[in-house]
Amino acid sequence: MFRSFFANRRWLHWSILGSATILGVTWYKVQLDVKIYEWFGDFYDTLQIALTEPGAIEFSDFLGKCVTYAEIAGINIVVELISIYKRLKAFEDSIKRTQRMRGLPQTA
């Protein structure tokens, strides 16, 4: 079994491309998480300064921090939606493939 799996080069290109895609998306998601955690630290530092020294922080600075979070969160949401769609599409394809192999009627 081991030899037949690794000796067969039929799916080699797909496995390399799929592995690279999975690693790339995972790396990008981790980078987005790091940006969010950095934003948390900066945002809460700003809040603490604003609470300890009234008038030290302008409202525009506060809104700037909120816009920064909205940008990071927006990118994160889009990446997650694409990831979920791809997983559902792969699951749907595997169901169709299984139905075809077993001779079952195809669903729409």
Description of the structure:
Helix content is 84%, strand content 0%. It has one domain. The longest helix has 44 residues. The protein is mostly helical and 108 residues long.
Number of structural domains: 1
- pLDDT averaged over residues: 87
> In angstroms, what separates the terminal alpha carbons?
35 Å
Unreliable spans are: none
What key phrases describe this protein's structure?
108 residues; mainly alpha; elongated
Short description:
The chain is mostly helical. It is built from 3 helices and no strands.
Give the SSE map.
Blueprint: H1 2-7, H2 12-52, H3 59-102
Helix pairs in contact: 2-3
